[in-house]
Each structure stands twice: as structure tokens, then as C-alpha cells.
């Protein structure tokens, strides 16, 4: 099963509240390629429906999202063109749809919030987490970097210091630490998380929807992310090197070893 996104309209018996659940049984809701496409389609539908006033995004079975579905990776990651298409079209297509959504989005986070989970959570407006949640992007263990736009997104929202620790040292943070770093809006117990999300979603749905959409447009404009093509105006030496061809590592031995070791359930040898 490739996973999916369950949709509950008018959740909590409240008109205008959509509850979305990332579901990938047995994989801590890791994002498959089809799930990225579904994420894009769902948030485009939310944006087009003027009746929606609030979206609550959560994961199934005690976890938010553990990253990408690594079982799919050998089928495309070792070819630079396919790798670029995956990140720039599939992954970023889903993330951009969330970022472009003018409806307030609440992330309810428990369990694992890793890699792709961090990226999706970074697109949300308000982030509530259980005190047992864990946050990171330990892809250095898999032998590849985070794609440029995805790294820019996480760095901008979680902070440069946190992003560097996650990406360079594979550090994993707990919820209180992420609250202290300003990534989270609130931390509560796992038992309280659902009711806290419900209360916030219902409250938002009762506020002026036009004001919410205009506020999101304003905030998005003020915090417009820098796309890879624009790096040339900021760091010409950087764009002249890595960022000009950020997926050239696709067929590298290190990349293959990291993913193969994970799938073989052994420690990689870099």
C-alpha cells in the first residue's frame, strides 16, 4: 500500500473545518510519491473551496510523518534527472500547495516528525505537539543532502541553528526543545493533543474567514522564500557550484550505500 491522506470535512461537527490525516500503515506515515501528489491535490482543493475556514493536519496511529518512503528510493534516486523531478516537481509541488493555501493550517504532531514531516510541518501556520514528539532530518545517515528549497524552508521556519544540527549532526530534538526554538506554538501531553487541536480549529473557524485569508497572503508576501534560481543574487559563488546542479550526487557511491544499508537494515559504511 502506498499510503494516502484521509479527509474529514466539517470535522468536530463544525462547518468549514477539514481534518486531514497522513496515513501509511507500518511506515509511521512516511510520504510515498503518490502521497506527495495527493497532498498537492488536496490543498489545491482546499484553496479553491471558499467554505473551508481551517485545516487540521495530523498523522495516523501516533505519529505525524517519519520522512519519505525509502523503499521507493532505489527506483529513481540514483538518476539525477529523476531525482530532480522528484524533489522539484513532486515533493515541492506538494509543499508549495500547502504554502500557497490561504486557509489557516494547524499541524497536530505526535511521535516521529522527521525529514518530510519537518518539511510539511514547516508549511503549517500553527504547530501543536505532544510532549513525546521527536523532530529531525537525519538523512546524513542515508548518504544524501536535503534538496535546496526544502532546506531553505526548514531553515527559515525552524531556524538556521536547528536546521544545521539536524542536517549536519543528525540531531533529533524533543518537543520542549522545539518549543524553545520557536518552531512549535504549544506543547501538551499526548492525551490532551486532540482536544487542544479541536479547540483551536473550532475557534479559528468562528473568526472572520476573509481576514484570515488576507492575513496569510500578507504574511506570505513578507516572508517570501528564496527559490534556488534566486540564490545567484545572494551567493554567486554558491550558485556557481553546488546549487547549479544540486542533484549531481544521484549516482554516487555514498548515496547508494546510505539507502541500500537502510533497506538492508545494517549500518552504512561511508
UniProtKB/TrEMBL annotation:
Pfam families, per the entry: ECH_1
PROSITE patterns for the chain: ENOYL_COA_HYDRATASE (PS00166)
Coiled coil residues, start to end: none
Signal peptide boundaries: none
Record family assignment: Belongs to the enoyl-CoA hydratase/isomerase family.
Stated name of the protein: Enoyl-CoA hydratase/isomerase family protein
